[in-house]
Amino acid sequence: MTLTRGVLTFIGLSYIGLFAAAQTATAGSVECTNYQAQHPEWIWCDDFESDSSLEQNYFEVDRRGGRFGVVTGSAFGGNGALRARFAAGVAEAGGVKLSFGRTPVAPTRFTDRNFDDVYWRFYMKTSSNWTGQPNKLARATIFAASNWSQAAIGHLWEDGALGLGLDPATGVSGSTVVTTTYNDFPNLVWLGKLNGSTQVYSAANRDRWMCIEVHMKLNTPGQSNGQFGFWVDDHLEAQASTLNWRGSYTGYGINAVLLENFQNAGAPQQQDRWVDNFIVSTQRIGCSAAAAPKTPNPPTNVHSD
């Protein structure tokens, strides 16, 4: 299959799947205590208070020789946060992979359920000396077989400057998964990239916690009505509403979310990026009571077919 890029289609003034309920998170708050009872819509919650629990909670932890893990002293909530330390000239700085739902790869939680509509939210901060675009940040995917072939991938990666952008891809043709391994780029079809407007990696945003939330909703089998969008500090940055994530494939739903740190050309210097208060949910999560619920601002760069 030829690697191609398409065009995203967007809706400007509305977004399906707005807040089902307001969620408050303020600096210093721990959100995950007894979250299963308080938020039955949450699939997962991690305040990153324990470094030793990473291998228990995630099916893959890349510690990069000690440069990645939970540290204290710079948390959004509680005492700990997940820190990635980038090294000068080195591309990789570690990451974690979360499993949920029915999956052929490391089944862990809710293993009898397919998830077609997922939100994930986390807080992110860069160090006071931060410079440059670190490229990779997070993605959700459908693992379709034990060889890690992927039916769809929702990437939250870079924009063309110092912000974030969406880069959705499908690994399905008709009802057949055509990828044969993880990141099988020759067999992926890219559905169209869209950039946000907030320059999260600019000097003005160094050493400041920013709330980032992503929404991935699979298309109805055989239709092109899938969705993909993201917010920064509860401001809608970009969204798509006519994606064909999976063709007619229904074997598995969204079953993994990855937090990653990979700078394609290598980091320009030693610098840190932290993540805290990580939640995966079937409903909108939000960042603060003041921001919810309300109609989001439309994205400034809207494309149509």
Fold and architecture overview:
The chain is mainly beta and 305 residues long. The protein has one domain (35-291): Sandwich (Jelly Rolls), CATH 2.60.120. The chain contains 2 helices and 18 strands. It has helices at residues 35-38, 54-57; strands spanning 42-46, 60-62, 68-72, 80-86, 92-99, 117-126, 136-143, 150-158, 164-170, 172-173, 176-177, 189-190, 194-195, 210-217, 226-232, 235-243, 256-262, 271-281. Strands 1, 3, 4, 6, 14, 15, 16 and 18 form an 8-stranded antiparallel beta sheet that branches. Strands 2, 5, 7, 8, 9, 12, 13 and 17 form an 8-stranded antiparallel beta sheet that branches. It has a two-stranded antiparallel sheet with strand order 10-11. A hairpin with a 6-residue loop joins strand 7 (136-143) and strand 8 (150-158).
Topology of this structure?
Layout: H1 35-38, E1 42-46, H2 54-57, E2 60-62, E3 68-72, E4 80-86, E5 92-99, E6 117-126, E7 136-143, E8 150-158, E9 164-170, E10 172-173, E11 176-177, E12 189-190, E13 194-195, E14 210-217, E15 226-232, E16 235-243, E17 256-262, E18 271-281
Antiparallel strand pairs: 1-18, 2-5, 3-4, 4-18, 5-17, 6-14, 6-18, 7-8, 7-17, 8-9, 9-12, 9-13, 10-11, 14-15, 15-16
